Amino acid sequence: QQQVKQSPQSLIVQKGGIPIINCAYENTAFDYFPWYQQFPGKGPALLIAIRPDVSEKKEGRFTISFNKSAKQFSLHIMDSQPGDSATYFCAANSGGSNYKLTFGKGTLLTVNP
Amino acid sequence: GAGVSQSPSNKVTEKGKDVELRCDPISGHTALYWYRQSLGQGLEFLIYFQGNSAPDKSGLPSDRFSAERTGGSVSTLTIQRTQQEDSAVYLCASSLRGSIGNTIYFGEGSWLTVV
Prior knowledge:
The structure holds two protein chains of two kinds.
Chain A: E1 4-7, E2 10-14, E3 20-25, E4 33-38, E5 45-50, E6 56-59, E7 62-67, E8 72-77, E9 86-93, E10 101-103, E11 107-112
Parallel strand pairs in A: 2-11
Antiparallel strand pairs in A: 1-3, 3-8, 4-5, 4-9, 6-7, 7-8, 9-10, 9-11
Chain B: E1 5-7, E2 10-13, E3 19-24, E4 31-37, E5 43-50, E6 65-69, E7 75-79, E8 88-95, E9 105-106, E10 110-114
Parallel strand pairs in B: 2-10
Antiparallel strand pairs in B: 1-3, 3-7, 4-5, 4-8, 6-7, 8-9, 8-10
């Protein structure tokens, strides 16, 4: 059973556009929601993360919007650049004493110049 | 080193052979994780080590998979009697502590191909 559902699978935008990637979860025990960025041949790297006590977090051009009641969260990339082309993964921590992440299946973002 | 180091970066093995994948976490990090990344399947949790606590092995897909962490630092993931479905990128990661708010840093992975 997939615990974090991510969409879309792939996304193409023009430079300057605002791609939005969505994730949904069912487990209400999830209490930490990071987004990871992965370039080809590299490991994923933490981009931005949010806790459920806030509805939005912004770091530079990246914003997470969080809707606790709907159990959804999304990543927005403002003024997207070709260098943002990568695979993006949402994730959630399942809570409890063990800190481990459950990942979505990823979104391949292409930003055309 | 500055980051999580994994070796080998690429490994081609014959079906039925055993393989060992090595991970050197960031110095001082007490938590270490192994994930598997298959094409189009995201990252699948395998195992988690935290300090001297018993490891969380709940993600290991079968008893052919095992991992150990020696001296609280280096970890080895062993796959016995490899099968073609084991082909994937095996990612190691570490964090300073095994608790929320601690960034999990990933290595570049070991790409395993079973032929």
